[in-house]
Design goal:
The structure is a homodimer.
Chain A: E1 3-7, H1 11-22, E2 26-30, H2 38-42, E3 46-47, H3 51-55, E4 60-63, H4 68-75, H5 81-84, E5 90-93, H6 99-111, E6 115-118, E7 121-122, H7 124-130, E8 133-139, H8 141-146, H9 148-154, E9 155-162, H10 166-195, H11 199-206, H12 214-224, H13 234-250, H14 256-270
Parallel strand pairs in A: 1-2, 1-4, 2-3, 4-5, 5-6, 8-9
Antiparallel strand pairs in A: 6-8, 7-8
Helix pairs in contact in A: 1-7, 10-12, 10-13, 10-14, 13-14
Chain lengths: 287, 287
């Protein structure tokens, strides 16, 4: 395992490419907007003019793009990864996308003689930079094992979750739990403000006990500083929650709190707040 | 500050009385059911036959009983704390009750020449036992300062939250944040199970990152072990959430997730699950 094709040089991808090169992998890269890839190319990555060029002649092809439709565009069709990767190549989608789409990539990939894995991550841009991502992997166990060194270059907790789609399903669990904890933190803060408490004092009192959560820690100080810059974009959170809601419905499971949080976030997006961070959920309340 | 009257010798109260005596305070105790107080009496607490007897002749009177109506019974009327405590006594309600009721106790208590504080706790029975409770105090700052040694005998984080009612309001924030985080954890687990993930593997993968919460840590292992014994009673959580909902409405603040979680918990209570622990919320989902 030496030659990596990497598709999607965004905030996440860029750091992951750097960590792969640092670990000794050869990286060939493609991005829809070439300008965004210029610095990693200067640092030693090889630029490819198309997905097809980036996919051919590699040991593994990694993608981390935006929305499910971007994933489809990159994998399927004549110009896609599946049609252009060499037989035996490991194809690894690290985008957060739908488990259903992961299964489809796995099926078509296997038919083409490839080794598909779905491997979304948690840990955000800071985790990508530090190489401490958690990587949630679905696919065949032997393919997971074969790609371990690749994952270890980018992350710290590398977990095998089960067959194709299970990496994505696990990521959905992550987003579902975040939705509840985030809303709980926002509602506690909104209540506090409106009944006249000192919100900082309240948060200091409760955040280390049974009410504490990573979301409370992340969100509280940003909200109090009126900082609504994205750590994680509201619009991407909406995408993820929509997928989770859809998959939950498929197995006849109603997630009332997820549904609520998604509805509130969509209202905020309609009001033009999609490019803010998820802490903007507080704006749905009387804040 | 030496002589303490303590009303309510339940799971919480018993441990708190022991810690007060350990710190050198003299404890006189009253409980509706005498049998529950026998062991602390054997350990040196003085039994009182009534609230009135327990309230008279003390430096401070502490109460920790069940529901708001129990608090009213203990404080108001001819036989209550306010009518029977000596002038200058600190009267401290540590029950989780409504901020409105705390304000009423404060007003009537002050008129009677007493020093009222509302001081609900977090940390549960283990915190009460270990003397590590977080104590959320509302009332006059000088009364808070005067009672600090009393609180320090029972807790570790002793926080002044503001005027009368603010201790209770802060406890409401705690319960609101718990509602969201608990629901998020339950929904993630229900989703995982129904899509066919290994729930333990999923939890290991996500619980240390952005999705992590004290609720996830508390609830997950209990649910997986099918242990629905109460760490915190569902029926008490319903009481607390009802108070929070009511107070939020008073300040025209809609807490959508709290409302949802409360509605789900009430359905479970109607099905006879009120005496289970809060982790029973998972039973509302397809689990």
């Amino acid at each position: 395992m030496k030659k990596i094709g990497f598709i999607g040089v965004g905030i996440m991808g860029k750091s992951m490419i750097r960590n792969l090169m640092k670990a000794g992998f050869e990286a060939a890269v493609y991005n829809r907007t070439k300008e965004k890839a210029l610095d990693v190319v200067q640092e030693g990555a090889v630029w490819c003019d198309s997905v097809a060029e980036c996919a051919a002649g590699r040991d593994a092809v990694i993608s981390i793009v935006g929305y499910p439709k971007d994933v489809e565009e990159v994998y399927f069709g004549e110009k896609g990864i599946i049609a252009n990767a060499d037989k035996g190549t490991y194809i690894i989608d690290m985008t957060t996308t739908s488990p259903k789409l992961a299964v489809r990539i796995a099926q078509e990939g296997e038919q083409a003689g490839l080794h598909p894995l779905d491997a979304p991550v948690t840990g955000g841009d800071t985790g990508a930079k530090a190489g401490t991502l958690t990587i949630l992997v679905g696919g065949k166990k032997e393919d997971f094992d074969a790609c371990k060194t690749v994952f270890e270059a980018m992350g710290k907790n590398i977990d095998y979750e089960g067959p194709a789609g299970c990496g994505q399903h696990t990521k959905m669990c992550n987003q579902i739990a975040i939705a509840g904890a985030l809303a709980g933190a926002c509602e506690a803060m909104a209540y506090a403000k409106n009944v006249g408490l000192d919100v900082r004092t309240m948060l200091n009192s409760i955040s280390t006990g049974a009410a504490g959560s990573a979301q409370m820690s992340n969100v509280a100080s940003r909200v109090l500083d009126e900082d609504f810059n994205p750590g994680f974009f509201l619009k991407h959170f909406i995408k993820d929650m929509s997928i989770a809601q859809d998959e939950a419905q498929d197995v006849d499971t109603k997630l009332a709190v997820l549904d609520d949080v998604l509805a509130m976030c969509r209202e905020l997006e309609e009001q033009g707040m999609g490019d803010l961070g998820t802490q903007a959920l507080i704006k749905h309340y009387k804040w």
